[in-house]
Design brief:
By secondary structure, the chain is mainly α. Helices cover 65% and strands 3% of the residues.
């Protein structure tokens, strides 16, 4: 199949497919006599795998490690387990940050005075002041 069909069958844009080729995440496709790329079912499978991993917020380097593990199925799962443990820790840290953000926003809404008509909104004034400190004071 050619690149357009590969893109349609996987839901990945043509530019992204070419980028993954340049990054050596996809095997080099065969070429026709007129230099068109020809993709195989292996390309479809690998591209779907990459897309799924990227959907899990894996970096390209993490995807590269996982592809390497796929290419050596008799190898140890230790590398994959370590990578997933690190990813889980990253997600936990981000969830904690989001909970802190939620708490700060809720506290700002409860504590900061809202202005009456004709006055500057107290919440906006405080949020603007906090941007100078880069951290909420609430």
């Amino acid at each position: 199949m050619q690149i357009g069909e590969l893109a349609r069958s996987t839901g990945v844009k043509i530019e992204t497919i070419r980028y993954y080729e340049r990054e050596h995440l996809l095997p080099v496709p065969q070429r026709t006599d007129s230099n068109y790329r020809l993709y195989s079912p292996r390309h479809v499978e690998q591209l779907r795998f990459i897309r799924y991993c990227r959907g899990l917020d894996m970096s390209l380097e993490e995807v590269r490690v996982l592809i390497g593990a796929l290419d050596t199925p008799t190898g140890s799962c230790l590398t994959v387990n370590v990578l997933l443990d690190e990813k889980i820790a990253e997600v936990d840290a981000r969830v904690d940050e989001l909970h802190q953000l939620q708490g700060s926003a809720a506290a700002a809404q409860r504590v900061l005075p809202a202005a009456g008509s004709g006055e500057t909104c107290g919440i906006l004034a405080e949020l603007n002041r906090c941007t100078e400190n880069k951290k909420p004071v609430i």
